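Supplementary notes for students who missed Thursday's class. We covered one full example, reproduced here. Read the sequence, then the structure, then the short commentary at the end.
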Amino acid sequence: MSSFSIIYVHAIFSTKFREPLIEADIEHQLQKYIAGIGRNKGIPIINSGGMSDHIHILLKLPSTMSISSAMHLIKGSTSKWINDTFYDDRRFKWQGGYSAFSVSRSNVEQVKSYISNQKEHHRYYSFEEEHKRMLLKHGVVLNNKTIDAGHK
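Structure (token representation):
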């Protein structure tokens, strides 16, 4: 039997120190660039989007690739491209880590919509609040306690 998998992943990562470096003119081009990485590397990108200090990507992970390999590839390639294209001083960097959440096939459309509506969503919640809520929703425990996202 050959290997087969269908694994949808919602990945989130932010700029280093959460600097607002993904300006409006960069954002759309960045989404296209991420889609191109996906096409060239066999990682179907379902949707991507974000804010000036972070990005969300919904992707379909190939059976031959780990999440960490996909994130390393996407983050490394986009960081180099953004600096080569927009920042001569090489100031653009992603933070070292990322969050990745599994997505069931039945929730793919909901996550796509969530990613597409980041601007509206962030009128009410900061990146930190959003991230804490996602960690809590997925039962992540840090420092021996469940993340408290608070409720609005």
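Commentary. The radius of gyration is 16 Å. The longest strand covers residues 7-14. If anything here is unclear, bring it to office hours.
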